[in-house]
Amino acid sequence: MTIELLIERIDYRLPGRGLGNTCRLLRTLAGDAVSKSIEVQKPNVALRITIGVILATMLGVLIKIAGSYIHYLHIDSTDAFSMLEGIDAAISTIVYLGLIVLFVFSLETRLKRRKVLAAVQEMRALAHVIDMHQFSKDPERLVHRELIVTEPGGQAQVDQLTPFLMGRYLDYCSEMLSLIGKVAARYAQNTQDAVVLAAVDEIETLTTGLSRKIWQKIMILDQVVVGQQRDA
Questions:
Q1: 45-75 and 80-135 are packed helices; what angle lies between their axes, rounded to 10 degrees?
Q2: pLDDT tens digits for 4-51?
Q3: Dist. CA 127–CA 99, nearest whole Å
Q4: 2-150+157-231 has CATH 1.20.1050 classification
Q5: What residues does each domain of the chain span?
Q6: Cβ(171)–Cβ(218) under 8 Å?
Q7: CA-to-CA distance for 205 and 129, rounded, in angstroms?
């Protein structure tokens, strides 16, 4: 609902600009975050059944090895060297089976983590896109209109935003960055995965830093407007 209202505000104040399309992309990512965060909380039934079959097979193999070893001891209990070899082989088998068990049990967590990290990476990329939008919005241009940005082709381009609209533009960028942090936090709910939590924290740090730069521009813009009103 918040993102929908932001889209309406952008379209009303700044029609025909790319910022509205960027906000629509944020809406899509937010919708995906809701569905994916629910999906990753559900158990992977097929994978867990497969894990159960693997563990049952491993347990059967282990029991068979133990039975064969006990049978061998009854046949030749005087060969101490063979007994030591058998113990060493049994220990190695248990260690290898233990490693396989750890791998199998962590497989579901790693698959879910990969899906979440891919979604977080999309939000990180969107945050940089928003930063590119606000990068060219320089309050100094309102003071020095003679400073014209010339494209390589030679065609002059001047941003025709008024001080009010430039302030709105920067404010919308800041709101979008804040929303990205909130959407990313959705993935951190109901999880203790340190990797996922660290990725979400990085998004929060990134968006906060970018938003701080925007608010510095807004403060400068306010000073410019006050100075123009005083001169008038």
A1: 160
A2: 999 999 999 888 888 899 999 999 999 888 888 877 777 777 777 777
A3: 40
A4: yes
A5: 2-150+157-231
A6: yes
A7: 16
